[in-house]
Amino acid sequence: MMDQVVTQASDAAGSLRHIRADFPILTQKVHGKDLVFLDSAASAQKPRQVIDCMAETMRTQYANIHRGLYWMSERTTEAYEAVRDQVAGFLGAGAREEIIFTRNSTEAINLVAHSYGSLLRPGQVVLISEMEHHANIVPWQMLRDRAGIELRVTPVTDDGALDMEALGQNLSDGRVALVAITHMSNVLGTITDARAIADMAHAAGAKVLFDGSQLAVHRRVNVRELDADFYVLTGHKLYGPTGIGVLWARREILDEMPPFLGGGDMISTVSFGRSTWAPVPHKFEAGTPAIIETIGLGAAISYIESIGFDRIGAHEEALTAHALKALGQVSGLKVIGTAPERGGVISFTMADVHPHDIATLLDRNGIAVRAGHHCAEPLMRRLGVSATARASFGIYTTPEEIDLLAATLVQIRGFFV
Amino acid sequence: MTQDDLYRTVVLQRTKTPLYAGKLAQANAQGQGTNPLCGDRVHLHAVIDAQGRIDAIRHETRGCAICAASADLMAERVTGQEPARIRQLHADMEAAVQTGNAPAALGELSAFAPLHRHRSRIRCAMLPWTALMEMLNDDKDR
């Protein structure tokens, strides 16, 4: 039995070594120290498979898509559209037409707020939660101010979980048209029970949108099993490039929604009198899209799937448990958010040491963490803090890096006492 | 652990034991600075004489070590100074954090020159100066 455990552990270390070898940036030095990158929740590093695929596309097979009547354009169109199939498979979508490429999650939510939002009537409600990223707050506020809808907020519990009882109360008057909630908090690491939220929303006659920016990196998502209506994610947190995000929505909803941006590629016919729209997904993809980035996202998804979410999830759970234990031993350190269902995003404060000072002093030791309000000011106010430091993990993060973080925090604390 | 020359003794001392923190009952001028990125805040209370000279100044700072120490050292440095001199110090401070070269006139304020290598932290040190400039401009308008 012991032998088996040791073998498993060394297998894990071996495969972690292989994964790290795929990320060229991890060999960089920062201030003369080995880079310890603990800010993957903000944006993940890129494996050579993504970097090489994008460079190779530009070197050998690049032209504009959907319009060129020549070999190079047709090949690029195929590569671009193949990613739509890939993303549909990745999310368990019912059809490839349900995948809309956007710039990022923020743009995907804005698309829904503008387009689906235009179908809402004054007095209808959009229900969000207290732990949303600004990207899932501000577009709804703008819709409220534009369209006279009501914006309602479901609180979080003291341990940083979504208050499901309050969610039920918020749904009870039957005026909620859309529930828009994070699938995993970028501050607390809390994973929400998306299926239960979807069931409650549907029972109250509401549609449901999940912000999967954080979760899709760590767990397999199946939008049909979740019974979601909208799901958004972003490529750059998924080890892919910046500038490419995804909106998935049910076909019948997308058909009903008016276009978001107007321009080339999204039309069927154009005259000065009127234009008609292309069918989905193209109705929502105006102008030349992020071609190289989309193809890079495809490479990132292939890379993730070659590792598999079983391994990704197991690695992350072990790391998170290890980190909570190691950080728990740092005097004066307080982890913000202790919901039982959580992923590898850990926010903390440390006695009177300001998060910015923590981040700068960690950086001097090669350790990159985020510090600030993490684009979630209302949540910060709810938690009674103005800022936190945040360490977040990726598939390349090692237990040794977390030990180094904890040891350096102890030294920083000593420095300020 | 690699300690940064930014967190020099003078910075740490002024953070832990500020000499100019608090309010002034007789203050006739106020200045505010807020950093929307982190919620840090500096509130200045000062007594300014008829010629615009700062007779006394105190700060209430909610912020990081760099911000708090900068506010305290700034308060010390500008006490008794006239507006023209203060504006020159502000320009020298700005030059120091942008270039890393501190004009000799800055004295202990040169402790913040290493910020030119931590560009994301420059506004932490400059926040008290933003509050001070706001206060001086308000005073000029009076």
Radius of gyration of chain B: 14 Å
CATH superfamily of the largest domain in chain A: Type I PLP-dependent aspartate aminotransferase-like (Major domain)
CATH top level of the largest domain in chain A is Alpha Beta
**Principal-axes shape call of chain A:** globular
Q: What's the architecture of the largest domain in chain A in CATH terms?
A: 3-Layer(aba) Sandwich
How much helix, percentage-wise, in residues of chain A?
40-55%
Query: What fold name stands as the CATH topology of chain B?
Result: Sufe protein. Chain: A
Question: Share of helix among residues of chain B?
Answer: 40-55%
What this model shows, in words?
The complex is a heterodimer of chains A (417) and B (142). With 417 residues, chain A is of the alpha/beta class. Chain A has two domains: 139 residues, Aspartate Aminotransferase, domain 1 (Alpha-Beta Complex), CATH 3.90.1150; 256 residues, Type I PLP-dependent aspartate aminotransferase-like (Major domain) (Aspartate Aminotransferase, domain 2, 3-Layer(aba) Sandwich), CATH 3.40.640.10. Helix content of chain A is 43%, strand content 17%. Chain A has 15 helices and 17 strands. In chain A, the strands form five sheets. Chain A has a seven-stranded mixed β-sheet, with helices on both faces. Chain A has a four-stranded antiparallel β-sheet with strand order 13-14-17-16, with helices on one face. In chain A, strands 1-2 form a two-stranded antiparallel sheet. In chain A, strand 13 and strand 14 form a beta hairpin. Chain A is globular, with a radius of gyration of 22 Å. In chain A, 50% of the residues are buried. The mean pLDDT of chain A is 94. Chain B is α+β, with helices and mostly antiparallel strands and 142 residues long. Chain B has one domain: Sufe protein. Chain: A (Alpha-Beta Complex), CATH 3.90.1010.10. In chain B, strands 1-2-3 form a three-stranded antiparallel β-sheet, covered by helices on one side. The relative contact order of chain B is 0.20. Chains A and B meet through helix 13 and helix 15 of A and helix 1 and helix 2 of B. Chain B: InterPro entries: NIF_FeS_clus_asmbl_NifU_N (IPR002871). Chain B: This is SUF system NifU family Fe-S cluster assembly protein. Chain B: It comes from Komagataeibacter melaceti. Chain B: One of its GO terms (molecular function) is iron ion binding.
